[in-house]
Design a protein that fits this description.
mainly alpha, elongated, 2 domains, 138 residues
């Protein structure tokens, strides 16, 4: 007896989509995409991202690395660049990150206090406008 099944049917279904591999980008490609993205008019920036199959976070990360004076970081993770930094550089970077976080929190707190002050002024003016002399009871 011989089997009429195809070889793929004998061993189970074949995976139609192989496991994707992590993409990596060259420094030249990153620089070109960032330059093109920044030069694009306001309504066409997302078209650049769609065409290249990228996310906004890619361009943000690459332009931040460029502005910091270094080469754009690998998209495979920053473990290799962190390992190369000295202890003092790592501490400096940690403090800069913490400082930025605290400055953002301070700005948020100041905005909330400003809003609370304005709400207090509004409520006080409303209370004053409703303070009318009691009607005489004659």
């Amino acid at each position: 007896m011989s089997s009429n099944k195809q070889p793929s049917e004998q061993h189970g279904p074949v995976d139609p989509a192989p496991r994707p591999s992590r993409r990596s980008f060259t420094a030249e490609y990153k620089a070109a995409v960032v330059a093109e993205y920044e030069a694009a008019p306001h309504g066409e920036k997302s078209a650049v991202l769609r065409r290249e199959g990228l996310f906004h976070s890619h361009v943000q990360e690459w332009s931040k690395a460029r502005d910091a004076g270094g080469r754009p970081a690998n998209t495979n993770g920053s473990a290799t660049t962190t390992a190369r930094l000295s202890r003092a550089e790592r501490e400096t970077e940690r403090l800069r990150t913490e400082n930025a976080r605290l400055n953002a929190k301070l700005a948020q707190t100041q905005a909330a206090l400003s809003i609370m002050g304005k709400a207090h002024e509004l409520l006080a003016s409303l209370a004053e406008s409703t303070d009318t002399p009691p009607p005489s009871s004659r």
